[in-house]
Queue: 2 jobs
Job 1
Amino acid sequence: MTSGTIRFIHKNKVLSIHNPDPNETILNFVRAKLGKTGTKEGCAEGGCGACTIVLGELKKSKIIYKAINACIAFVPTLAGKQLILVEDLVSGDGSLHPIQKAIIDYHGSQCGFCTPGFVMSLFAMYKNYSFYKDDIIRDSISGNLCRCTGYRPIIDAAKSLNKISKFDFFKRNQQLSISLLKKIKLKSIVISNKNRKYFAPKNVNELKKILKQYPNSKLLSGGTDVSLVVTKERKDLDSLIYMNSIDELNYIKKNKNYIEVGATTPLIDFELFIKKYFPDFAQILKRYGSTQIRNICTIAGNIATASPIGDTLPLLLSLDSQIIIKDKDKTKILPLNGFFINYRKTKLKKGQFIHSIRIPLLLKSIFKAYKISKRIDDDISSVCASFNVELKNNKVKKIRVAYGGMANIPKRAIYCEKILLNSSLSDNIINKAKKSLEKDFKPITDVRASQKYRMEVAKNLLEKCFLEIKQKKLIRINT
Amino acid sequence: MKVDSFVMENRPHESAAKHVSGYANYIDDIVEPEGTLYGAIGYSKKAHAIIKKLDLRDVWKSEGVVSVVTSSDIPGRNDIGAVYDGDPIFPKKVEYFGQPLFAVAATSTELARKALQKVKITYKNLKPVIDIKEALRKKLYVLKGRKIKRGDPLKKISKAKNYLKNSFSLGSQEHFYLEGQIAFVIPQEDSDFKIFSSTQHPSETQQIIAKMLNQKNNTINVEVRRIGGGFGGKETQSLIFAAICTLLSKKTKLPVKLRMDRDDDIIITGKRHDFYSDYEVGFNDKGVVEGVRIKLASRCGISPDLSEAINSRALLHIDSAYYLSDVSVENYLCKTNTSSATAFRGFGGNQGMMIIENIVDNVARYLKKDPAKIRKVNFYQKNKKNITHYGMKIEDNVINEIYSKLIKSSNYKNRRLNIKKFNLKNKYLKKGLSFTPVKFGISFTTRHLNQAGALVHIYCSDGSVHVSTGAIEMGQGTYTKIAMLISNELGLSFDKIKVFSTRTDKVPNTSASAASSTTDLNGAAAINAVNKIKQNLALFVKRKYKVKSNKAIYKNGMVKFKGKTFSFKSLIKDAYLNRVSLSSSGFYSTPKIHFDSKTFLGRPFLYFAYGAAVSEVLIDTLTGENKILRVDILHDQGRAINPAIEKGQIEGGFVQGAGWLTMEEVNWKSNGELTTHSPSTYKIPAVNDTPEKFNVKIFKNLNKENVVNKSKTTGEPPLMLGMSVFFAIKDAIASVVNYKIIPNFNAPATPEAILLSINDIKKKL
């Protein structure tokens, strides 16, 4: 059963829109159509957090609150969710939410333009956690830029929430919200608006059919790239397939050999899971993007975008990950190595989609990953490096070295790996391995770094990796 | 000291409750009249070219387009230059990548922006000049530079025991106000216009638009309630958007809103001046600077804009907090094919200070001494060494006291030892520590701008007070502070006072909210208006109630004359019934200041704001990554009107200054195209860039001058506290070779710049 009507909850009422414009952002919708102007546009590319809203989603009869950037999310993706805006935090009698009060009390607003976004990011934190440790606070607002305060009062305001009751207006209305969310439980959505089409399939079978019929459709997950076609390039996206509505692809499973991650699993869930197995992977994910971005973005999206600076890609490459690709009839399992053919080009053909990713569990390996950027959070790497090393009797038994930001695709350093394989970790070998990176890569100069710097840092990260292995400790400014 | 009940209170920002609930209206939030159109600006994709043909036919035909404007639609002056010409609204010859060429009004912002892409432009390309050094070589200037001199630096340098010579450069900075540039114009009867602009300067907006339209100033009314950040970026850079929006409104006879996309905003508007300097310095073994010569060149972009005043402020701050007995500076205002560099918090002062801070730092490193100590030996003193290089006697110097207190409270000496130990033990991670001072002159250096007006009404039926001034609320809390001052003057609680939106029809001829002077000037003007009303009341009470003295105490809602006490409310009603004026304008002009720009001598500033910071950083010598570990600040805010607001300015200013000198890097391609025009390519500090330990303390002081509440402004000065981060990073770099060599290190301190400097220093060892 499909529907052209999207239904979502706002202020405990079900709102329906028939065939909404699939290229309209939620930000424009709430400001222009709902007349709620508290949510601001700061950049229209998910980079400043001024447009942060919270979506409530039902998961196992519980509402999960997700802060997202409304400027790069399209209206139809509201289907089946609870929309919460900054104005909605004020209760009917005019009293403010504890977060709002705290920001006032701690002088957390100056010009005030970024403030609604901070309020919403902290609101999601307030709802999802029971105790607000410093790192949770910082992570929750790492995607919200403030040019006035220097952040200290906002951090203090967030800390003060530890001292107050968790019982808010939303908790009081929770049962009603849950029953409404159940009532509008997601159907498959097919929208036709003028010449624009939008599909939100419920399962893989539907996806396959749609892809067969509309092979030129763009697949939409987090939208950090796809949405910018509309908001920045000012082009239309005539046919969109929303992947994140497919629940059966939102999973992580593990057996003794590998971890398998479904295509629509949000990065933030994956990050929590992978921490235990590859702590460095989780660290890189934290810095991959803001909470708002990681709430909706997926590894499959990162792979399909195939950007040379996609941060998960060198990590997955060094871990010998596999990628499961499907189309109407077939399933293929490919190694990720070799999947990227050229700048932003992959082996994925029209009509195919990424189903899942398999990451081998390498129990004997040492896994390390490093990200270099101008800013610690929510910045694009100038160089991202990942190492997977298996040692036996002080010799390298197995080695994978992969880099992002060093070529037009994320790539393994084959020459470098050859030098390291079966070698001891002498200074001489490390130096040779460093030198060999010049054969593996010819990086470019761009806005983030020069060619020279990239090459030097790539070499130094290799050195750092083996230093850390030898010294059995981390040599990093952020630990 | 008088204790006031309504000032020195940590009161939240007057709009805080609205900020947090989304009900604070910015221009994009104003309810639009039916029929409102939406604008977009088409700009040059060449940095230097003659426009041979601007084919707009397909733009006109594009969906939703109602009108298109070009230079031929401008009836009056086609320029928005505030002081000098040079900033055409729509030029014939383009001089930078991003220069506006035409604009569109359409039925939605999206359609207007889409229509822009359909323009066909034929350019005749000319060679662009982007780099400061190239402009210097080719002698391309926006204005003639100047030389200033005190004493005989040449002679002093040649006689000095020690000598250093080098060059140093500083990067630009994008303002990145969170609310982008925006204007909203509603045509009125006759040919009048009501203009909402996100600007720091409504009066200039009014004047520029009147000139553009060939209309009288009294036909243009500009209103600003609040802006979502300015930092100097909306002092003159907002003008072109208000002007173009008005032009679209004039042509269509409809309301028009022009909201800039973030990328276009950054591409079109000017940024901080980046500087290049050559210097030579002579000094004795104690590190005292005996003579210094500096060549100071700034990238001004295509036009003078405010570059003259900004470079002048750089010259006025080339001393930082140091007595320079013999000094000369040659200043060059370079013309480049980049957007016109403009005002940015610090306004050249911070650049001037960085130049000399770097020199003093290098003097210390040359002598293998702790830079903090060498800074101290060069400080201005109280009774000698207290005349600046521009002839102003410093009467309020507290930098020596701040130094002693902060060195102690930050535990500087112990930490210096511990850091040395850490650096000896750690090969790859290194720590650095630095103390830097701030002494920043307060007043507009253009004398006539140091004036302000106000309008105060007291309403007879309930005694509530309405205040209008020329101050723009841009997050600095000026409305809150002015309301607190008035509340204090009238002895009324804060909720009785309303500071209303800033409008050119309420208070005319205002200066920009800039130069850190907004509350000093406008607060004083508002108090002046209140005093006039109080005078009316006193005369009335004396007449009617035969009290002996004019003097009255306004406190806790009561007005106490000698022998007769009224409630404020009843006195106001009484006065009204007896036909006494309860409304007044007010005025203030800063006393004492004078400056001769020809001789570069005088007293350009009423007072100085002081402060200092100690920063500790950690760097990774393999990658150049860096992290601020701890910051201690001691800052002089006089007797603050609202200490919480001042603390916010101090912390926010510090982080913005640290951002300028570390991760914030503005870049142009050689063809003049800006490559850093979005939050994905231009990084301002985020939450994890604030120091892990951040101790901000207030230096207890009173402003010696008669400034409102004896306070000192905290607008710009705290930005310069961020300098300590740069020099701490430099200190960490120097530790790589055990402090034996002076690092060659320029700002901004990106990981790449740090690694480059480390490589350089290792090679020299």
Job 2
Amino acid sequence: MNAQQLLDLFLKQIFGQPFILIGIIVLIGHLAMKQGISKALTGAIKASVGVIVMGMGAGALIGNFNKLITSIQTSTGINGAGLNTYPTMMAGYQKMDSVLGDGTGVSWGIYTMLIAFVINLILVALRKWTKIRAVYLTGNVMIVQTGITTYLVWKFLGTGMIGTVIIAGIIMALYWGIFATLLIKPTNIITGADFTVAHQQMFVSYLAYKIAPKLGDPKDDIEQKKMPSYLNILQDNIIATALVMFISIAIIFLAIGASNIDWLRSAEGLNQKGLTNNLVFLLWITITLTANIFVLLAGVRLFVGEIMLSFKGISEKLLPGAVAGVDCAATFAFAPKSVVLGFLFGTVGQVIGLLGLIVFKSPIFLIPGFIPLFFDNATIAVFANKFGGWKAAAMICTINGIIQIFGSMLAISMTGLTWWQGSADYATVWVVIIAILKAIGSWFGIPVGA
Amino acid sequence: MIRILCVCGNGMGTSTILKLNIKKICDKHQIEAEEESCAFGEAIGYLQNTDLVLTTPEWAGMLPPSNAVIATTKNLISLDCVEEALLKAIKENFPNELKQD
């Protein structure tokens, strides 16, 4: 084996292959946490399987979804785009892979995640000066966010691997540290527990915490009121995903008309010629897309648990005083009614936003997704209700729903992807970050990547 | 050995942290356990092979009927709250699993 082959083996086949890379990281993490070799190996193999499963779900989802977007395009001339977190990451990776070779996107994304985590730890270690006290531990969200940031930096700054990973890592660590730290106090007031929310609506949740007292009275707490218990089922991710899908696709069917629905049925489309009944075909698409998302999430779940074990252990060992930043859903049990309220009014806001896109003849139409719709508005409602009562929560979530639509549209007009993350922060803070990256890129005359 | 299932809405963030914390608690009290985590929507598939479920009161109320013991706490993230709920459930239902020393 000569030097060239050796380099190829290490860079492309080992450290460039996400399934091996994740396996190695998990193995090292488990061994560092003294888990024993058999547990470390089990974890590493599960994580490797998870990466492949995630790719299968995302591939099928993006493939099926693109057919829907094509049908919207041919019938109305409008470009469609979906709002969801994981597919946005995968869509960015696909663009990177198309230029840099298969597997590059995910590998760079994983390196960014590691660098960002280390910088986050350093910022917390220097908390005397940085004021940053939160360590971001929500693995599932870290994966998505570092992936998207990696893509954005690569696209607009045209940097190589090391430059991309370092710049993206710094942006990520600052976003995580600053906003998760801002939420320590309000989260503590709501839960009485010592953790903070580390997710993707931190900035808007903080705004809600500040603005809600001016919009309403915290004594109007929805948690003290009665609410029909059947609404609780909306918290079930599979049911709610299917519901959002069904409504979105029903609207698409109405918009594209019979001939385009027939095209979707054909072999060129989704290849379901047998399903001649429109309602059955609509159900098939709904359930299939929900299943695609489920597979994707099942894959993520397989490796996220393993990575979080390492991250949590390392952070607790190195920085015992740090505040753990965890998934926004950890607050939901303290305010279950706010969660449902936020979801309902966020939906109202997104529908108003979508109608606005039609009224203003927007060249892009968006298809809402469950994750940004549910988790963001639920979390924002938890904060808004606590500090301003249910009326403030209803108002803020409606406005947030509208912002999610228009902000995402701005983001898509800059990135040119057929997906966008869609979360509250990704329709506000991140639109600004993209604009800055774009401005820096054009300042230096860097050609924009795929 | 007790088979413990951690359930939350999306089966991603909270239940994973819960799983890690339960592992820590079981190690501390020398309880032999196997931890698994999942989303509420998938729980029905796991329940048959589960002895003890840990979740929030809301989800507990909606779980399908099974033979598994259900323990709840509002604060699935706090090690102390989980430890209290878990040990209480084990003491009441699986006293033999607690190694008294």
